[in-house]
Design a protein that fits this description.
- It contains 6 helices and 10 strands.
- A 6-stranded antiparallel β-sheet has the order 1-8-5-10-3-2. A 4-stranded antiparallel β-sheet has the order 4-9-6-7, with no helix packed on it.
- It has a single domain, classed as q2cbj1_9rhob like domain (Jelly Rolls, Sandwich), CATH 2.60.120.
- The protein is globular.
- By secondary structure, it is an alpha+beta fold.
């Protein structure tokens, strides 16, 4: 990616609150992420009451994910998009095989960035990510949204469907409104994400720094 392409990407990230980069990860790495994440999933004994399809803390279960979260190629690009060094928080594996499993429109009250990697083809039928373009610039307007409370924003003029293929990656600000719908066709729809804070002086950033030094 040259300087002109990077500047275009950064401008879109700042204006829209997200960007999608196609074929960011090679298919052999996508397969490795799937294999290792599913191995973690197979040994999991605790589930969230709300989201049984999300496995968090992969970096604590397999050093591969710790290395990927800290040193993967997404880190340098995210740093350029944010304009500050991203501090890793956690990584997660998403599966969506049930029609009922969905995350409603919401934003996350933290500064930084999120990456979401498609491990399977994702589209409207199987519950792809949706973003509300520019919503990170209007946080107060959408502060009422909660991921477990239904709110239909499907007809909002700024909604964007993140239709992605394996290896595509979405970079977005946590404060950008995002959600994923139900899986209507039952096809496999897996994803991998990492959360980063962008403020090293925040409580989260200080905690992560102490944990890395321990």
């Amino acid at each position: 990616m040259d300087d002109v392409q990077l500047q275009v990407l950064k401008n879109r990230f700042e204006e829209d609150g997200f960007v999608i980069v196609r074929q960011f990860f090679k298919l052999d790495q996508v397969e490795e992420i799937c294999r290792r994440a599913e191995a973690v999933l197979a040994t999991r004994s605790e589930y969230s009451e709300r989201y049984t399809n999300i496995t968090k803390g992969l970096e604590g279960a397999d050093d591969y994910f710790d290395t990927l979260m800290n040193e993967g190629p997404q880190v340098s690009l995210l740093e350029k998009l944010l304009g500050t060094k991203p501090i890793p928080i956690t990584s997660s594996f998403f599966t969506k095989n049930k029609n009922s499993e969905q995350v409603h429109p919401h934003s996350d009250a933290m500064q930084g960035g999120v990456i979401w990697v498609a491990l399977d083809p994702t589209n409207q039928k199987n519950g792809c990510l949706h973003f509300l373009k520019g919503s990170h610039l209007r946080e107060e307007e959408f502060a009422y949204l909660r991921p477990h409370e239904p709110n239909d924003l499907s007809q909002h003029p700024d909604v964007i469907e993140a239709i992605m293929e394996p290896g595509d990656i979405a970079f977005f600000r946590p404060t950008t409104v995002h959600w994923s719908g139900p899986n209507h066709d039952g096809s496999q729809r897996r994803g991998f994400n990492c959360f980063y804070t962008g403020d090293p002086d925040s409580d989260t950033g200080k905690l992560q720094a102490r944990q890395r030094q321990a």
